[in-house]
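Hello forum,

I keep getting stuck at the same step: I have a sequence, I want structure tokens, and every attempt I make locally crashes halfway through. Rather than fight my setup again tonight, could one of you with a working pipeline run this one for me? It's a single chain of 182 residues.
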Amino acid sequence: MVKQKHKAVESETATNATTAAKRRPKGKQTALKSQLKKPQSRKTKPANPKSKSKPTKPLKSKEPKTNASTVDSQFSTKSTAKQTADTPPADQATVKQYYFYVLLCADATLYGGFTDNLERRLATHNAGKGAKYTRVKSRRPVKMIYHETFNDKSSALKAEYAFKHQSRADKVKYLSAHDVKI
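Reply #2:
Ran it on my machine without issues. Output:
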């Protein structure tokens, strides 16, 4: 008998909740239904290490933190940094140059590379401490047969990339177009 009364009480509360939900406006009705369906659990789910969501990092300011004594010096360096980025000032005589070069290896293969100092890079290759390709003893000594000069690093790297992704026949055509005979 006790069990029947207990069941009846549960069904009465459930029916009271549904009838109360019917009387409320729609927005509140959906909120009430969602409250009835949610389990009352205090356990938190462990973080899934394989989840694709990345934790957000706080954004770092590009401007360095300053104090009152360094404000004047920073404004002067910012203006000169902006000048060198946009246009070099007239008193700046030396502009850093970058080079794309082609080496003829001892085994008659071609190697293309990039540097800002041709003599040092050639010595590094011949010493066996340069690129992995020229470290092989059968490819040394190497001889520089061609180079181009660029004012910015990006252009030199693009030229190197384009050369390295050509077939040997295309590389030879490129060199012969620039008056280099192999």
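The radius of gyration is 36 Å. If your local run keeps crashing, start a new thread with the error log.
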